[in-house]
Specification:
This protein is α/β, with parallel strands linked by helices and 252 residues long. It has one domain (7-141, 159-193, 242-251): 3-Layer(aba) Sandwich (Rossmann fold). It contains nine helices and seven strands, in the order H-E-H-E-H-E-E-H-E-H-H-E-H-H-H-E. A seven-stranded mixed β-sheet has the order 3-2-1-4-5-7-6, sandwiched between helices. Helix 4 (112-121) links the parallel strand 4 and strand 5. The chain starts with 6 loop residues before the first helix and ends with a strand. The structure holds S-adenosylmethionine. Residues 1, 3, 14-15, 18, 40-43, 46-47, 64-66, 69, 86-88, 103-105, 108-110, 115 line the site of S-adenosylmethionine (SAM). The site of S-adenosylmethionine (SAM) has 25 residues, from helix 1 and helix 2.
Length: 252
Amino acid sequence: MTFNVSADAYARFMGRYSELLAAGFADLAGARRGQRALDVGCGAGALTARLVSRLGAVAVCAVDPSASFVAAVAERLPGVDVQLSAAEQLPFPDGVFDAALAQLVVHFMADPVTGLREMARVTRPGGTVAACVWDHAGGRGPLTTFWQAVRDLDPTAPGESAMAGVSEGHLAQLFRQAGLRDAEETTLTIHVRHATFEEWWEPFTLGVGPAGSYVRSLPDDRRHLLRERCRQLLPDGKVEVSATAWAVTCRR
Ligand SMILES: C[S@@+](CC[C@H](N)C(=O)[O-])C[C@H]1O[C@@H](n2cnc3c(N)ncnc32)[C@H](O)[C@@H]1O
């Protein structure tokens, strides 16, 4: 899926969750100084920034098929080699990275198995290939309440729960299909508190990802209904979001 949105819109919508997720994911992948790492599908740079703080900018490369994200990461993180590219055809020779990571990306790849195979190709033997994806199918993603409200009003709406890797065991299965045999799946959980319902809702109107596209597709009256349904499903006052991702790491 193409993300034709500004990095700022992305940061307000998903960055508020992915910046936190990046810490645990970098830990899980064992990212540390001395390594050279690739961030695949870097978006606005949530994980890239985390890798830079651990490895140093010159040891980090990043790719994304969205030109606005590539420009934003180049500006945010000087020294990082950031290129316009999809996972399925990475612009690097074989075995040049100690680790290749993809945070919240596999389910958006046109061909997840080819994308993971490419990540393995550019990683040295013994290096790490890692990916994580929200547990949308298990109802533990950061957008679960939103999609619940959507389904309450429109049971035929697609949602994100059928996407690649978002159900238990499927991400590890994709790794194995890509030839990464010892893939191990675990979970990572983050907690975010939004001060008000409006603060939680407003980023859904920015057109980011499947949820934002869905909101943008609605006429005003149905958008209003959806917002009010979300409000009913959430407690008054602060909105506490706990979100869990499936995460797989694997030795190449
Ligand atoms: C949900 S965002 C995640 C961004 C970032 N990794 C983060 O954690 O905030 C998904 C990203 O995947 C990128 N993407 C979509 N299709 C891709 C593909 N085939 N290969 C690599 N990245 C892709 C999008 O452009 C977008 O930046």
